[in-house]
Design a protein that fits this description.
The protein is of the alpha+beta class. About 45% of the residues lie in helices and about 15% in strands.
Length: about 1000
């Protein structure tokens, strides 16, 4: 459809208030909406309304793309470099042209930040767009009394739509007529159980949630079984999904990582500004006091010198390297089906201390599965079976459970049954009858497999399931019995089929047994109804016995136990007769039945969730399940996956506000929660100083996803609203991928801490030396190119920190929710290393400058290149050249060795290299020392650089000189290792004491 300009207009009369939509009779709804329930709107009227209310599409969450792409660039370090580069560019343009090269060195670094961040943002958005699917692009609608197919975006209030099994409901509607209608509303309510719907529903008009209206259908939900005709009440932004999306226009708080780096950068900026003020004032005053007439060029040069020296203290590479670290993490996580929409979400994931997760579709498969089978053969000899491995047809099997220790006790730890041997299915017994009924009394599902095969259990999310979830569960049960379906379909011939009776809630199919020539009625449905129709039960010898009232009550008690586990119960019965007339009344066929057993159906956990929960606990992360399901269902799943531990609480959403902080923190499962409850839970954890991740797939999860520190959405089955709200999207919907994200996030955060430590430690040491020397009149401890050289040589070693692999202990450590970029032990280590390195640099310089390490023939064999712009030729002496070379060499040795010590602050170097060996870092660590040696002993290389104006002025060192610089360069590393050793011993003693 062509885009149309929508005129601003007041709310139209045919748009109903929410209370009216389900309270008024249908004939009054028809009048309010000015529509005909039989013939629908005219095409002309529909087009008119479309112009008035707009297209039937949920508005996208308001996102300022320019702000989203450029927000990471609002970094103080980048801002300072841009400002100073601009000042230097002005000075270069006006009076000091040689400064253009300095500006040219810094600008590519800044540009690199911009390009990398923007490219990642665009790439993530493209990955997300590829996941977004059109749920229901076409709809059947009555227009002018005729059925037509139109784009769902063209639907308007008053349209009459026709829905069938498998359809996605295209707008909020009210049922006019329906047959056997059940709807999956999980994306709105979080409840896994299908909702029964019918027209003219009564008794629920005024109370409860709007989603409890039995004659209401809502955009985005799906028809599980049956069909319906409905009148559209609301479209687009006025639907329930649209209203929820509207609430998501929330200004996100400043990203924690960016905030922390900015705080660090601000502190450095203040230090630099103080230095600049002192340095410029001192140098300008010296010009006047020296008796020389200060020229504009000399003043400009002093200002430029101070700015260049100051910026060598500002580690501009931090933003770029942090971005690269997070980008590398994002690229790695893509391989694990984790799409990162916001790079900062990776770092936040590494600090998570509470993981709030939706149940349906996240922890569970959102696929109903038979888990228990119960056959009440002969009083006192009942049998219970468990179905293992619900995720795999190849390994799933039916195992018999020993209930001698108590029926309820058998449910406590179902995991212990996973390795049990499968039960032998004997012929003509209750279990075989029940399995046969699960196959035969079943509307065989159609999955649209690429090979044209119909497979019940191997359901792919990309396939359109057009069968009842219960029927699918029954077929999965039969397949796990490893029986041949052909043996039953060939033996039994279908004669009569009666669908679900809304009153009795029974489904019956009549077959002729080609083996015995008798007629068999297979009946399934509500236990409550079926028990009243059953007169017999099978004995151990497969004979029928009278089904006493007392034993029926006993079966009802068993049903209650299953219900406490949140299971949905379907019971089975049969009847064999000699003769059958297809004109027989259904009521007659559904009487005098023999009860053969029941199955308990649930939405099972995803494979590996229990292990993932255990790993989270080991990492000190509190997993919390938040669901719209009932208390019993939530508690059952929580216990099964190991979420509920000890005396942890399970509470309903209505109790949240009344919980004390202690009880709130001790709650493992929140049930019967609304979208507002979910957001309230997330915010309350944040107020208790927790870093919160929230996962979900439905619109009902979106508010909480936005509020969380880390929002995680399901990509395959999640809604567009949920995906747009999240910083992380799981392409495979796997709960295990969340753990992968947290593990990678922890590694990313540690790498970022190490990078910041590396640059700040080196910068502080250099700043102390440069700052102190700047007050010696006409003395320059390093010339301009050497300042650039020392800055450039830091980049390769720091890349080693980027490419390093994760520590094997990363998920054994406590959450770092309150840990700063440099805090606690790191601050102590920073002080020890920086002060010792500054001292060693000073010692190395003075040893050569004052001829304590005298000039040798090898030293003077080097050719010192021409003067630097900061010096006069008379200042270039061999002692000065050697002092500078030794200082540079000590700095290069120290910063390269620092990488090996820093990569694992909780282990000594030898242990980290042994346990977490990574060959990729060694070439990067050794590259700069090797390059420095080549530059030192191959004069032709410096001649070549000199030809293009680059003057590093590095001379050759003797073997003894090298022994000195090695000792001085490694001394700070030795002190750092001693500090680490003290920490390790202290931690061991604390553990021993506890």
């Amino acid at each position: 459809m062509k885009k149309q300009t929508l005129p601003a207009s007041p709310e139209q009369e045919f748009i109903l208030a929410e209370k009216e939509a389900f309270a008024l009779p249908l004939d009054e709804i028809s009048k309010k909406l000015e529509t005909n329930l039989d013939t629908g709107l005219t095409q002309q009227e529909a087009e008119k309304r479309l112009l008035q209310v707009g297209p039937n599409s949920v508005p996208k969450i308001a996102v300022n793309r320019i702000k989203m792409y450029l927000a990471p660039l609002s970094n103080w370090l980048i801002a300072v470099y841009l400002i100073v580069s601009t000042i230097l560019a002005i000075l270069a343009l006006v009076v000091l042209p040689h400064l253009w090269f300095q500006v040219g060195v810094w600008l590519p670094i800044i540009t690199g930040n911009v390009v990398v961040i923007i490219v990642q943002s665009i790439r993530a958005e493209r990955g997300l767009t590829a996941l977004q699917k059109l749920s229901s692009p076409k709809s059947k609608v009555k227009r002018d009394g005729k059925i037509a197919v139109t784009c769902s975006e063209n639907l308007v209030p008053g349209d009459i739509i026709l829905l069938k099994q498998g359809d996605i409901i295209p707008a909020d509607s009210r049922i006019i007529s329906s047959v056997n209608l059940r709807v999956n509303e999980a994306i709105l309510t979080g409840e896994s159980a299908d909702a029964e719907k019918s027209q003219n529903a009564s008794g629920d008009k005024e109370e409860g949630s709007i989603f409890q209206k039995r004659d209401g259908l809502f955009l985005g939900t799906s028809i599980v079984t049956g069909n319906a005709t409905a009148v559209v009440l609301e479209t687009g932004k006025n639907t329930q999904i649209g209203k929820m999306a509207g609430k998501l226009k929330i200004v996100a708080p400043e990203i924690s990582l960016r905030k922390r780096i900015n705080i660090l950068a601000k502190n450095l900026t203040y230090i630099v500004l103080i230095y600049l003020g002192i340095s410029i004032t001192y140098n300008v005053a010296n010009l006047y006091l020296s008796g020389n007439s200060p020229t504009v060029a000399l003043i400009a040069q002093d200002i430029a010198n101070s700015l260049i020296t100051a910026l060598n203290i500002m580690p501009v590479s931090i933003p770029l390297l942090v971005t690269i670290v997070m980008l590398a993490g994002a690229l790695y996580m893509v391989k694990s089906n984790v799409i990162i929409r916001n790079l900062n979400a990776i770092e936040s994931a590494g600090r998570v201390s509470v993981l709030c997760t939706d149940k349906t579709g996240t922890i569970t498969q959102n696929k109903m599965t038979v888990k228990w089978v119960y056959t009440p053969i002969k009083e006192g000899q009942e049998r219970l079976y468990f179905i293992t491995s619900p995720d795999s047809i190849d390994h799933g099997r039916i195992v018999k459970i020993n209930i001698s220790q108590g029926f309820k006790k058998a449910f406590e730890n179902p995991q212990e049954y996973q390795e049990s041997a499968p039960v032998k299915i004997d012929e003509e017994n209750a279990l075989e009858y029940l399995l046969a009924a699960s196959l035969l009394n079943n509307d065989r599902p159609i999955f649209g497999d690429d090979n044209g095969e119909n497979k019940a259990c191997q359901i792919d999310t990309s396939r359109k399931v057009t069968s009842d979830a219960t029927d699918i569960a029954m077929l999965c049960l039969f397949e796990r019995a490893i029986l041949e379906p052909e043996a039953y379909t060939e033996r039994f011939t279908l004669l009569q089929s009666w669908p679900l009776d809304p009153k009795s809630k029974l489904i019956t199919k009549v077959f002729q047994d080609n083996k015995t020539k008798r007629f068999v009625f297979f009946v399934k449905g509500s236990t409550e109804t079926l028990l009243t129709q059953c007169d017999h039960v099978l004995s151990k010898e497969n004979e029928t016995e009278a089904f006493s009232k007392e034993y029926k009550n006993h079966v009802c008690e068993r049903v209650e136990l299953f219900s406490e586990l949140g299971q949905r119960i379907v019971s089975f019965a049969l009847r064999e007769v000699e003769n059958f007339d297809q004109t027989d009344m259904r009521e007659n066929c559904e009487s005098c039945l023999t009860f053969i057993g029941l199955v308990a159906i649930t939405d099972p956990p995803r494979e590996g969730v229990r292990f993932a929960v255990s790993e989270l606990r080991g990492a000190g992360i509190k997993p919390v399940m938040i669901t719209g399901d009932s208390l019993a269902t939530a508690k059952s799943i929580g216990r099964e996956i190991g979420l509920i531990d000890g005396d942890q609480l399970v509470v309903e959403g209505s109790q949240i506000k009344s919980l004390s902080d202690q009880d709130f923190l001790n709650t493992a499962v929140f049930a019967r929660t609304s979208p507002d409850d979910k957001r309230t839970i997330v915010v309350r954890y944040q107020k208790l100083n927790c870093v919160v991740a929230m996962t979900g797939d439905g619109v009902n999860d979106a508010q909480a996803i936005v509020a969380a520190d880390v929002g995680i959405a399901m990509g395959a089955t999640g809604t567009d609203v949920a995906r747009q709200s999240a910083g992380i999207v799981l392409a495979d919907d796997s709960f295990n991928s969340i753990v992968t994200g947290i593990r990678e996030g922890r590694g990313v955060f540690e790498k970022i801490q190490n990078i910041v430590f590396f640059y700040i430690a080196i910068s502080i040491a250099e700043a102390l030396v440069l700052f102190g020397s700047s007050f010696v009149k006409e003395f320059f401890i390093l010339q301009t190119w050497q300042l650039i050289y020392i800055a450039i040589t830091q980049f390769a070693p720091s890349i080693a920190l980027v490419t390093d692999k994760l520590s094997q202990d990363v998920m054994k450590e406590k959450p770092r929710s309150k840990e700063g970029l440099i805090g606690g032990k790191r601050r102590t280590a920073l002080v020890v290393f920086s002060l010792s390195l500054a001292l060693m640099l000073t010692v190395a310089y003075l040893l050569a400058l004052y001829d304590i390490l005298p000039i040798s023939g090898l030293n003077t064999a080097s050719h010192v290149l021409g003067s630097d712009s900061l010096e006069t030729p008379s200042m270039i002496v061999w002692e000065q050249a050697k002092a500078r070379t030794m200082l540079l060499t000590v700095a290069i040795i120290a910063q390269s060795a620092l990488i090996l010590s820093l990569r694992r602050l909780n282990k000594p170097i030898y242990k980290s290299l042994k346990e977490d060996w990574n060959w990729r870092i060694m070439p990067l660590v050794l590259s700069i020392p090797v390059f420095h040696a080549i530059l030192m002993y191959v004069p032709q290389l410096q001649y070549g650089l000199g030809a293009i104006g680059i003057n590093f002025a590095i001379i050759q060192l003797t073997a003894f000189d090298w022994l000195v610089v090695l000792a001085l360069g490694l001394a700070p590393i030795g002190l750092l290792e001693l500090t680490k050793m003290v920490w390790v011993r202290r931690e061991k003693s604390n553990v021993g004491a506890s």
